[in-house]
Specification:
2 domains, 5 strands, Nucleotide-diphospho-sugar transferase domain-containing protein, two-stranded antiparallel ribbon, alpha+beta
Amino acid sequence: FQIQFLTHTSTHPMSRAAYESSIKVVNKEINMLRKFCVGMALVFKDHVLVFHSHDLVFQPTWACSRDELPAAASDFRSPSWDFPSALATWMLGRRDQDRNGLACEAIRAANDVFFGIGVYTVIETSSSLVRLSPFLTEAELFDCPSRTARF
């Protein structure tokens, strides 16, 4: 089993009693008033892990074996993950290619290096956090050491 957390999905662990009294038994009218839907809930003996979704946009994938699941993104928390090396390798591999497209699009496409960065996150990361234009080309961003370091 694998789940991709898309735009508006989050998890909420809670006691089973709280889930059964406040989330599970909700009539249609109240469900329309609250600001989330339950996409999926994993119920255990004493607790429940609820996958809330603002708009039911999430993607669970079931398979009989791990090999049948889509490729999982690297885990940035893993001691073996070396982002600077992965970034440098990615940059060198693209050096001789056309890099006049938007850096935001190149970053989103390189999900083996920039995993978890989607359409909203790439704009927030570039323009809001580090004050870089979201309209920079890939070459303008990654050929400038200062911009690359800030990103």
